[in-house]
Amino acid sequence: xREGFGPTVITPGHMGVDFETxxxxxxxxxxxxxxxxxxxxxxxxxALLLFDFYNIRYVSGTWIGGALGDKMSxxxxxxxxxxPIVWDFGSAARHHQLFAPWLEPExxxxxxxxxxxAIAPRAGLFTSAVKEIVSILTDHGVVDQPxxxxxxxxxxxxxxxxxxxxxxxxQQTMLDARQIKSPDEIMLLSQAAAMVDGxxxxxxxxxxxxxxxxxxxxxxxxxxxxxxxxQVEAINAVSGERCNPHPHNFTDRIIxxxxxxxxxxxxxxxxxxxxxxxxxxxxxxxxxxxxxxxxAREWMDKAIDLVSPGTGxxxxxxxxxxxxxxxxxNEMAAFGLQFGHGLGLGLHERxxxxxxxxxxxxxxxKTGMVFALETYCPASDGISAARxxxxxxxxxxxxxxxxxxxxxxxxxxxxx
Length: 416
Description:
By secondary structure, the protein is of the alpha+beta class. Helices cover 31% and strands 21% of the residues.
């Protein structure tokens, strides 16, 4: 069994103070811009046109909340020799002019496209936006070069193509840029994980017969926002017979004596995310539940022990059971159960580690990568299952663990 958390990762207080070195947000923004510019310069693109909220935040240091995150209503243009231009939702652009001095005021512009089709293309917003973008590309001398786009509404793509702009995939470029985290990013990821450590203590204390899954979700949301979370993206709460197979959601199911229950808490602090499973038993545990947990922990520890710079993700994936060994027909059917994924501004960044993709397309681990490792083991009773997740930083001295709520053995909440 793995003991301890590996090399030290600093988890500073959340406030800025004069007596300690903590997160330096100006340094953070400069690091991210440097990474984005280096990726752009190494690419075939003359510019990046970004609609993915996390890419926009990475490049511009702006954020306006999660409600618009899947609407592709905001966009950002970065050309090789110029500062980023951000088109934002109405008055948010004016807010950036007032409170984001690292951006040129004239580069904070109001913009609107289609809100995923709610505004029809015939309104002309896509046409006018493309005219403005093409004018800027022309002024910056890159209109004849391919433009990299991460995600896009099809009407905008068609307008760009109609204007003669060559469009290429920039999501690969941006994910490559984002995969190596700076010390500031790692501190923020550690702070986000520390918040979840505390929420799991609250869940451990509250988990008892008669409590519903959705009540645990409400408790976790409340505590995270009280501690300063800027977005609680999702919380899975899965108990009893719902554990096997894993449904990836929560319901109003009442938790009963002897249930096994697992939870996944996904939130962000200053943009940096967690993905953090823990499994608990309620009141008591059975031998099948404990055996399943022991197996899930063994798979986890084998994977963590392999984490080091230079290791291929295929090596880690091979440390986990094949899908057929725990009841699934193939790796597609079992995807996400024995699994690893990068963490940062996005929930799923690089590297993605799975037998589905890593055996044929491995990625080399590098110092500064941060990812979550997840294991799952169904119990022999046919209904229970264990789910464990640890967030890992790749360091020159070995893996450092950010997730610290105890998980070496199956813990029993409110033991009888």
